[in-house]
Write a structure and sequence with these properties.
By secondary structure, the protein is an alpha/beta fold. It is 16% helix and 18% strand. It is globular and about 60 Å long. The mean pLDDT is 95.
Length: 415
């Protein structure tokens, strides 16, 4: 985090990334003094409602974050920025996105948690659009032109007002991560009244274990364990009424609807209180580690991995077989996970995987068969990318072995 004083004093000359949060009501003109170097500008958590018309004078600007401000429209000046391709206006008051405000090279567009009722048809001209986050708006339909966005890999349309499944998404060749729960066309969200319920007072919260788009996960111990559950548990505390992926109640419904599987984190109980909604889960042993890391600004929709990470082809085949079985299980329950990524997978020293985080999950049992087939195909494409990522972690010598060649052929990954 930087300060306005540093900027005005010229202490930030040459920086590539600038982040200022000081309740700004106007764009600081001193930012233009960084025109020779600035690539990432983060003005989140201020009181801004517009940006200067000459923003294009930041010729190297690639990424703009303006979350949690007071914007009611996406500024027109963005379209003139020559290199801008990642744009974020999460949690503002956006009511309009004009036909001309977005750069044609936009790759990653975040409009989560606003007041949008429609999007421009010109969005179909964004030929590089790969990631589109629209959850928590009031959209009643999506532009038909989205079918032209052939590079689109991830889209979040949960918690909107869509009256039917957007058919223009069904044949997109690269779409792999789809979240659509919490719309009028979706099936009823079940409350699962027979699932055990506890209070937050029965638990002693301890260390923060991790966090994601929909909540924070804490280690916890029991004060009062009348259900005779494991003494040590993990508790996922949901963030607010709507998250980047949708409504917490839809996540909980999907998680409980898929029932038990050896490769799923086991839910134990729920907390349902006015000030806290949470899911109590089994605590995963310490010898489980993250299989992957989240996408970066550069990879956009694809996971990243530690440079030292490596698996033999036999280890990869074991991982893939477990994930295949799990995906088949989810399909049998007619639930699309929507976030099938290595960074949502934990792996033990023995090669056993555990999968979780149903924040982007959606039930599709009520939809017509052709739409169900399309959703399954989209989820299977995420599985294909997962397999591709696993093979990228194999030593070169292993990739010539018959088991590797068979896996490549099965998932059409042959060069």
């Amino acid at each position: 985090m930087h300060t306005l004083e540093q900027l005005k004093n010229g202490d930030l000359k040459g920086v590539r990334r600038l982040q200022i949060s000081e309740n700004l009501t106007h764009f600081p003109q001193e930012i233009f003094s960084l025109a020779d170097s600035l690539e990432i500008l983060d003005l989140s958590n201020n009181q801004l409602s517009d940006l200067p018309e000459d923003l294009y004078k930041l010729p190297h600007l690639k990424v703009l974050f303006c979350a949690n401000n007071q914007f009611r429209h996406v500024p027109e000046c963005l379209s003139k920025c020559p290199k801008l391709d990642m744009i974020g206006f999460k949690h503002n008051q956006l009511e309009t996105v004009s036909e001309t405000c977005l750069p044609k090279d936009t790759r990653w567009l975040i409009l989560t948690d606003n007041r949008l009722t429609q999007l421009p048809e010109s969005i179909g001209q964004l030929h590089r659009l790969e990631k589109l986050a629209l959850a928590g708006n009031a959209l009643t339909s999506l532009p038909k032109s989205l079918s032209n966005c052939q590079q689109l890999a991830l889209i979040r349309i949960s918690a909107n007002a869509l009256t039917e499944f957007p058919k223009q998404l069904m044949n997109l060749p690269n779409l792999a991560w789809l979240a659509f729960s919490g719309n009028p066309f979706c099936s009823e969200t079940l409350d699962h009244p027979s699932f055990p319920q506890v209070t937050s007072e029965q638990l002693r919260f301890r260390d923060l274990l991790g966090q994601g788009a929909s909540g924070e996960i804490f280690e916890a111990h029991w004060h009062d364990n009348h259900l005779e559950l494991p003494e040590q548990v993990a508790v996922k505390v949901f963030k607010g009424e709507v998250t980047s992926d949708g409504f917490p109640q839809d996540e909980l419904d999907a998680c409980l609807s898929v029932e038990a599987h050896p490769n799923l984190v086991r839910p134990l109980a729920r907390i349902k209180e006015a000030e806290k909604s949470a899911l109590v889960m089994e605590l995963i042993p310490d010898h489980y580690q993250n299989l992957g890391l989240p996408p970066s600004l550069e990879t956009c929709s694809r996971d990243t991995f530690d440079e030292s990470q490596s698996f033999s082809i036999d280890e990869v085949v074991n991982i893939v077989h477990q994930m295949e079985d799990l995906v088949a299980h989810l399909e049998s329950k007619q639930v699309c996970h929507g976030d099938l990524y290595a960074h949502n997978v934990l792996i033990s020293d023995e090669g056993h995987i555990l999968f979780g985080d149903f924040g982007a999950a959606s039930k599709y049992d009520h939809l017509p068969e052709d739409q169900q087939d399309a959703i399954r195909q989209i989820e299977r494409r995420a599985l294909r990318y997962f397999v591709e990522d696993m093979l990228s972690l194999c030593p070169e010598a292993d990739l010539t072995k018959p088991t590797a060649i068979d896996l490549k052929l099965k998932y059409q990954l042959v060069d």
